[in-house]
């Protein structure tokens, strides 16, 4: 019995450690072909995006589109930042502000909320917790009409505040979920020791729990940042003036208002993608957690 | 409420309970204000006509919005399109995700990097990938139609995205491309948890690759498959930006609601459509909770 269990544990540990199992279900060649095809399909659009953003207009609109680089130019990028026509710099800044503020709000509200879920008993704890997960499955489209009415009544149409509030709430369920899962794994003894030393609960949160949770706090912040950075529907309804547009709406308008600006649109798309890819290098190890909580649209 | 007393028995306990409530309060207030209250308000709005001026109150019109909807062929057309889109992209993204996960369930050089790259379609901003797909598929400048035309597989006269008949399948393919990494990641995590000894035992019994897949892998994955299909179904049914930004030729219910409310400014009617969407969504969420129990939630 014991032997069986240890054998079982050992074999799963081996799989976990090496992350593979040996098999010959597919020949080596077949495997390489399948993997190559998967990567090609996944990455081709990103390649086209980068390539087009580096191609001079004359070649983009030639009759023989090609997947190989010919002449490389940075003119699409200089036009994007240099000309009066495109307010790309402003869109980028707006998105950065909105995403940073939102992710910070979400983190502060999330830390205390998740701590309350995991360490404090209060009536309705379980109910609120389940409610948070259910709310996360809902989509923006179900609340967009009443929310717009509400925003209009409050007189905050076309303000960043409208985005701060709605984005904080869109990101909050994921932040709460990631943090409470992590807090549950922290040994309670450390906090008890702190409490015995005369720390108050609130001091314990900021001087013991937060420092112990830094990696997951960064991950939660970045996930929230990504959701806000990618968000389209709220921004498209709440924002009106050019100066306040975020990247998704700004790029859409570039595309809609001008003919044949694919070079600039691709350059803008690439610059919008870049921060997310950089963050993703850090986030990858948290992806399973972040995704199972909800594969957030956006 | 006798049960409540245990939270307030001693002063220390009372303090803990009050602190617990105080700390969760910001989350509860925010979620109630931005999600729960709007859902309730939406029910009211769906029975009204909303004037353009936000200072005027909506006028009660009873069931008239709903009557308009069920008698409108456009609504039923959008409903059918939504179903085809939802089923199509759920099935396709789950199957591709499963296939790629099986492919990754072994050791090879650069596995970690490759796994990260495969996830990119899912995490990058929708605006960027929707536009690059539009560009790639454009009949004039796009590389894909051009290559297909060179091979004689396609005549690049009308764009795939500009004709209604080809736009829907294209949006389904785009959705599957964007969302298969979600299924892939959940499957790959689950596959790694299947003990190698099960496969060893099966091999000793002489089971081939197909038998191993059918008798070990598939039963072990059953729960994950159900979760993936259900979650994808809920989200695809309500998908907005991934369809809207790729083509204006596919009218699903979320797009119908958005256009009705914010292009035609018939917000009462828009509220009625989104309420119907919410009901369908709620049914699936309840299904999710009953199927997987509250622990999973």
Automatic annotation (TrEMBL), chain A:
Superkingdom of the source species: Archaea
Entry keywords, A to Z: Cell membrane, Membrane, Transmembrane, Transmembrane helix, Transport
Main subcellular localisation: membrane
Listed Gene3D superfamilies: MetI-like (1.10.3720.10)
Localization in the cell: Cell membrane
Transmembrane segments: 29-48, 91-115, 127-152, 164-183, 204-229, 261-283
Domain spans labelled ABC transmembrane type-1: 92-283
Entry-linked Pfam families: BPD_transp_1 (PF00528)
Membrane topology annotation: Multi-pass membrane protein
UniProt cross-references to InterPro entries, sorted A to Z: BP-dep_ABC_trans_perm (IPR050901), MetI-like (IPR000515), MetI-like_sf (IPR035906)
GO CC term, one of those recorded: plasma membrane
Family statement drawn from the similarity comment of this UniProt entry: Belongs to the binding-protein-dependent transport system permease family.
Protein name in UniProt: Carbohydrate ABC transporter permease
Origin species: Salinirubrum litoreum
Species classification: Archaea, Methanobacteriati, Methanobacteriota, Stenosarchaea group, Halobacteria
UniProtKB/TrEMBL annotation, chain B:
Recorded superkingdom: Archaea
GO terms under cellular component: plasma membrane
UniProt topology in membrane: Multi-pass membrane protein
Record domain ABC transmembrane type-1: where: 79-290
Listed CDD domains: TM_PBP2 (cd06261)
Gene3D superfamilies, per database record: MetI-like
Entry's localization field: Cell membrane
PANTHER family listed in its UniProt record: BLL4140 PROTEIN, DIACETYLCHITOBIOSE UPTAKE SYSTEM PERMEASE PROTEIN DASB
Protein family according to the UniProt entry: Belongs to the binding-protein-dependent transport system permease family.
Name the record gives this protein: Carbohydrate ABC transporter permease
Source species: Salinirubrum litoreum
Phylogenetic classification of the source organism: Archaea, Methanobacteriati, Methanobacteriota, Stenosarchaea group, Halobacteria
């Amino acid at each position: 019995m014991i032997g069986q269990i240890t054998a079982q544990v050992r074999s799963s540990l081996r799989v976990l450690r090496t992350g593979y199992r040996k098999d010959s279900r597919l020949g080596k060649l077949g495997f390489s072909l399948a993997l190559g095809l998967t990567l090609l399909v996944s990455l081709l659009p990103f390649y086209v995006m980068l390539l087009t953003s580096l191609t001079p207009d004359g070649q983009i609109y030639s009759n023989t589109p090609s997947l190989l680089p010919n002449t490389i130019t940075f003119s699409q990028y200089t036009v994007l930042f240099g000309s009066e026509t495109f307010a790309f710099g402003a869109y980028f800044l707006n998105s950065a502000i909105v995403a940073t503020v939102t992710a910070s709000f979400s983190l502060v509200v999330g830390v205390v909320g998740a701590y309350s879920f995991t360490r404090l008993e209060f009536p309705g704890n379980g109910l609120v917790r389940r409610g948070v997960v259910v709310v996360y499955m809902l989509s923006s489209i179900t609340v967009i009409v009443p929310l717009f009415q509400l925003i209009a009544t409050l007189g905050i149409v076309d303000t960043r505040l409208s985005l701060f509030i709605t984005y904080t709430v869109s990101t909050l369920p994921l932040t709460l979920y990631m943090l409470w899962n992590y807090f549950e794994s922290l040994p309670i003894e450390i906090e008890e020791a702190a409490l015995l030393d005369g720390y108050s609960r609130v001091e314990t949160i900021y001087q013991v729990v937060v420092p112990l949770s830094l990696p997951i706090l960064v991950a939660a912040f970045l996930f929230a940042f990504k959701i806000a950075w990618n968000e389209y529907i709220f921004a498209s309804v709440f924002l009106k003036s050019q100066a306040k547009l975020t990247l998704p709406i700004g790029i859409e308008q570039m595309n809609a208002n001008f003919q044949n600006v694919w070079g600039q649109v691709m350059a803008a798309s690439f610059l919008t993608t870049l921060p997310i890819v950089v963050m993703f290098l850090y986030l990858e190890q948290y992806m399973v957690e972040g995704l199972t909580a909800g594969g957030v649209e956006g | 409420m006798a049960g409540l007393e245990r939270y307030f028995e001693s002063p220390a306990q009372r303090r803990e309970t009050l602190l617990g409530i105080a700390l969760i309060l910001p989350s509860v207030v925010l979620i109630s204000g931005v999600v729960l209250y709007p859902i309730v308000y939406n029910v009211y709005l769906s029975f009204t006509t909303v004037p353009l001026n936000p200072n005027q109150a909506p006028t009660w019109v009873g069931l008239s919005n709903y009557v308009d909807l069920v008698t409108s062929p456009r609504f039923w057309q959008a409903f059918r399109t939504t179903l085809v889109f939802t089923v199509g992209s759920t099935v396709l993204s789950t199957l591709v995700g499963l296939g790629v996960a099986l492919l990754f369930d072994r050791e090879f050089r650069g596995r970690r990097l490759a796994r990260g790259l495969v996830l990119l379609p899912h995490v990058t901003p929708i605006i960027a990938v929707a536009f690059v797909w539009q560009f790639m598929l454009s009949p004039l400048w796009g590389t894909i139609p051009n290559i297909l035309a060179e091979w004689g597989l396609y005549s690049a006269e009308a764009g795939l995205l500009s004709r209604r008949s080809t736009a829907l399948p294209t949006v389904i393919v785009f959705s599957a491309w964007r969302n298969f990494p979600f299924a892939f990641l959940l499957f790959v995590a689950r596959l790694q948890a299947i003990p190698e000894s099960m496969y060893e035992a099966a091999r000793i019994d002489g089971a081939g690759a197909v038998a191993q897949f059918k008798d070990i892998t598939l039963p072990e994955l059953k729960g994950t498959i159900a979760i993936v299909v259900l979650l994808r179904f809920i989200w695809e049914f309500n998908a907005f930006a991934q369809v809207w930004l790729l083509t204006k030729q596919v009218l699903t219910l979320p797009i119908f609601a958005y256009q009705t409310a914010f292009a035609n400014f018939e917000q009462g009617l828009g509220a009625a459509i989104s309420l119907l969407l919410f009901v369908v969504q709620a049914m699936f969420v309840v299904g999710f909770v009953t199927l997987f129990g509250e622990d999973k939630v």
